[in-house]
Design a protein that fits this description.
Number of strands: 23
Structural class: alpha/beta
Distance between the termini: 70 Å
Strand content: 15-25%
Number of helices: 16
Radius of gyration: 24 Å
Largest sheet: 7 strands, mixed
Strand order of the largest sheet: 15-16-17-14-13-19-20
Bound molecules: nicotinamide-adenine-dinucleotide
Shape: globular
Length: 497
């Protein structure tokens, strides 16, 4: 069986411990590899390699660091098919979707190519007589990233390129469910010219994470995953004096106004709710039609589309939805569908009994659609992270906004309408980090920043864009006076220039 170790120093190394985790092909249900689960020793080894390499990397002229990013961009483009295939093989999403996710990660590399411009400091001439003020940004030193299973290419690429371009060393701890793509990305970074030690991939789970959080030489931690984990990482990391950004789970609503183009709204809902089998933090999991007529018309059009979803292995052409990531996750999602029925919601489309011919051991679940879901139900309150869409009916625009705002999560939200006034009011009033107007999955581009509000993000900085440049650097302000001609004398009061 394929064994996946770690990537520390010059390249891959074998796992040294006793602990291993299984990696599956979700389409067949077969275990395809085992991955080494690091403990404190491997994290220590990665930190030592980082400490040896990072000071010289930070001193490398920024234009040369940018050239490494240009090379990485080229390598990711060249290896796009290979990277996407690795994502599909271990995550299960379709190849098209996997390629899209690698491309969204690649865009962050492209943004990092502009690091000389991004790191330019600020200068004020003559802030006092003969006094100049310069502020500019320095790397943190060693940063770490802990990433979820659902985007094994994109989310490591949200973090590592910018952290490294800023002059840091970066230790990635990817999800143990799909480690092959992050390992390959680590290799491509080395090939692009990132010095050994400046990038490391340490595989594992909670033990590796705890070793990262406890390590005094790691200055900043970026995390993306479930809210319970995010909160734990934020609290533990900040208590240990680290800078932490921890992006958590979500429950994203899509409000459908009576004047919306319903066909467009249904197309959008199909992709946003069932694409990637609902395993996206920006997936729409709640549709909120406004008014009974809108709700009835929406369900009437949605139900047949959900029944007709083309389900199959992600590697097959024409497939719209692949399997879920693991058997455990499949059982959890199916359990939520059982729960919704027990809670009294109306299951309009039931995908629980779906069996994929020829792939009977695969982790497949067909699309499920609930109507008449109430805000008090657990299927509404909790993140399901599967192909399950809940319809919560509301009588008015105000009631829809109130519903969205009352939810504990605040990652993404969308409104479908032709009314500019309603769209603008909605965008102003919702307490959600990312808003789409007739755009179901409003993931900001790499040169803006990504992040939710409320319990979808712990910390002060969003991911990528300028927020990431600030997160991975600390600012220094240098005030200078040259002694030519001016004699200020001793000053005992607070200097005021
Ligand atoms: P997860 O929280 O289970 O795991 C994320 C990472 O944390 C993994 O690397 C895992 O090994 C580690 N981890 C898990 N449990 C831990 C623990 N108890 N202590 C320390 N480390 C632990 O999340 P997941 O199931 O891999 O990913 C799905 C979740 O991620 C969903 O909730 C989804 O909404 C969220 N997500 C959020 C965003 C966002 O941008 N807000 C993006 C993608 C995914």
């Amino acid at each position: 069986m394929n064994e996946i170790g770690h990537l520390i120093g010059e390249g891959r190394i074998a796992g040294s411990g006793e602990a291993w985790g299984p990696v599956f092909n979700p389409a067949t249900g077969e275990q395809t590899a085992r991955v080494a689960m690091a403990g404190a020793a491997e994290v220590q080894r990665a930190v030592e390699a980082a400490k040896a390499a990072q000071p010289a990397w930070a001193e490398t002229p920024v234009i040369r660091r940018a050239r490494v990013m240009f090379k990485l961009k080229e390598l990711i483009e060249r290896h796009m098919d290979e990277l996407a295939a690795l994502v599909t093989a271990e995550h299960g999403k379709t190849l098209d979707d996997a390629k899209g996710s690698v491309t969204r990660g690649l865009e962050v590399v492209e943004f990092a190519c502009g690091i000389p411009q991004l790191l330019k400091g600020e200068f004020s001439h003559n802030v006092g007589t003969g006094v100049d003020l310069l502020s500019h940004r320095f790397p943190i030193g060693i940063c770490a990233g802990i990433t979820p299973f659902n985007f094994p290419a994109m989310i490591p690429l949200w973090m590592a390129p910018l952290a490294i371009a800023c002059g840091n060393a970066f230790i990635l701890k990817p999800s143990e469910k799909d480690p092959s793509c992050p390992m390959r990305l680590g290799e491509l970074m080395l090939e692009a010219g990132v010095p050994p030690g400046v990038i490391a991939v340490v595989n594992g789970g909670k033990e590796a994470v705890n070793a990262i959080l406890a390590h005094p030489d790691i200055g900043a931690v970026s995390f993306v995953g479930a809210t319970a984990t995010a909160e734990y990482i934020y609290r533990t990391g900040t208590a240990a004096g680290k800078r932490v950004q921890a992006l958590g789970g979500a429950k994203n609503h899509m409000v459908v106004m009576p004047d919306a183009d319903l066909d467009q709204a249904v197309d959008a809902l199909m992709g946003a709710a069932y694409g990637s089998a609902g395993e996206r933090c920006m997936a729409v999991s709640v549709a909120v039609p406004v008014g009974r007529h809108t709700a009835d018309a929406l369900i009437e059009r949605l139900a047949p589309r959900v029944r007709q979803l083309k389900i199959g292995p992600g590697s097959e052409a024409g497939v719209e939805m692949g399997p879920l990531v693991t058997k455990e996750h499949l059982d959890k999602v199916r359990g939520y569908v059982d729960l919704g029925l027990a809670e009294g919601a109306k299951l309009v489309v039931d995908g629980r009994d779906f069996r994929m011919q020829g792939y009977e051991q695969g982790f497949f679940l067909a699309g499920c659609l609930f109507d008449e879901v109430q805000p008090s139900m657990r299927i509404y309150k909790e993140e399901i992270f599967g192909p399950v869409l809940s319809v919560v009916r509301r009588d008015s625009f105000d009631a829809a906004v109130e519903l969205v705002n009352a939810h504990e999560y605040g990652n993404g939200v969308a409104i479908f309408t032709r009314d500019g006034d309603a769209a603008r009011t909605f965008a102003n009033k919702v307490n959600i980090g990312m808003v789409g107007v007739n755009v179901p999955i409003p993931v900001p581009m790499a040169f803006h920043s990504f992040g939710g509000w409320k319990r979808s993000l712990f910390g002060d900085h969003h991911a990528h864009g300028l927020e990431a440049v600030r997160f991975y650097t600390k600012q220094k302000a240098i005030t200078s006076r040259w002694p030519t001609g001016i004699r200020a004398g001793a000053e005992f009061k607070m200097p005021t220039m």
